[in-house]
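Notes from the pairing session

We agreed to fold both candidates in a single pass and log them together. This is the raw record for the first candidate, unedited. Please don't reformat it; downstream parsing expects exactly this layout.

Candidate A
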Amino acid sequence: MSDIFTELETDHQVVLRLVQQLHTPGLAPDARDRIVQRLVMEESKHEAAEEMWFWPAVRELLSNGEGLRNAGLDQEEEAKALLQQLMEAPAASLEVDRLLGELLPAVRAHVDYEQARVWPALRSALPPATAHKLGARYRSSYQNGPTRPHPRTPADPAVLKVAGRAAAAVDRARDALTRRGVS
C-alpha cells in the first residue's frame, strides 16, 4: 500500500508523460485525439480524488492549509474548465491547439505547486500511517472516479463523495457506449 505522496506522484507522472506525448513532432491527429481523451480522463479522476482526500488533509493539518488549499483548488478549477472546453472542441481544430497551449503550462505549474510548496509541509505534519490510509482512500476514489471534468461540481469532499460517485457512473456508462478511452 502506497502513501498519498506516492499515489499523487504516480498520477502526476502519467499526466506529465501524456503532456510530453502531445508535444511529439508530426503526431497524427487520431493519435493526438486519443492522448487528449486519456489526458482528460486521467486529470478528471485525479482532481476529483485530490479534492476528496488530499486538499482536506492540507486544510486540516497545516497552519496555512486553507490558503494552500484554496490556491490549489483555484488551479484545479481552471484546469477543469479547460478540460471541458477541450472535450467539446473538434479534434483537429485550432481551438484544440489554443486550449492545449493554456492547459499544458497550467498542469505543469499545478504539479510544481503541489510538489514544491504543499508536499514538504504536509509530509512533516502527516504521520506515516495516516499518509498510507490517505493513499489507499485516494487510490480507491481515483479508480472509481469521474472520467470527465465537472467544473460546476463544488470542491466539497462531502458533495464529491456522493455526487462524484453518481457522476463517475454516468461518465463510465457514456464511455462504454461511445468506446471512449478504448484504443
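Candidate B (folded immediately after A)
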Amino acid sequence: MRAVVQRVIRAQVVVDEVVVGAVGAGVVVFLGVDRTDEETDAEYIANKIAGLRIFSDTQDKMNLSLMQCGGEALVVSQFTLLADCRKGRRPGFSRAASGTMAANQYEAVVERLRSLGIRVATGVFQADMQVDLSNDGPVTMLLDSKKEF
C-alpha cells in the first residue's frame, strides 16, 4: 500500500461539481492499494498517518501528530500511485489491486483512522475527482507498507 500524505490548511474533493468531502487543517492522503496488500498493510498505513509527527508544537518544531493536534484527514483513492514507469512512456498498472479489493482496503484505512478519533472525509471511490488543497509548508511524506528506506 502506498500513500502520499500532505499537510494542509484546508482541502476538498469535488465530483460532478459537488463537494463530496472537505477538511480543515490536517492532511490529505492519496492512497493506492497494491494487489498483494493485506489487512496488516491497511493498519500499518493508518497508524503511520495518525502518528506522523508533522505538525508544529508551541516552539514551531514538527513534533505533533494528527491525533495530538486534532487535525482532520481527507482520504482519496488513487490507483495511479502503483504505476510502474520504468519502461517506455506509458505507465503500467499491473501492481494495482482490483476494484473490489482496493475498495475494501481503502475503507479499512478510513475506518482505522476514524477508530483512532480522527475526523475523516473521503472522495468517491473510482470517481473522476478534482482535489483542491492548500499545502501547508509544504510538507509531503511518502509511505509504503512494503518498502524499507
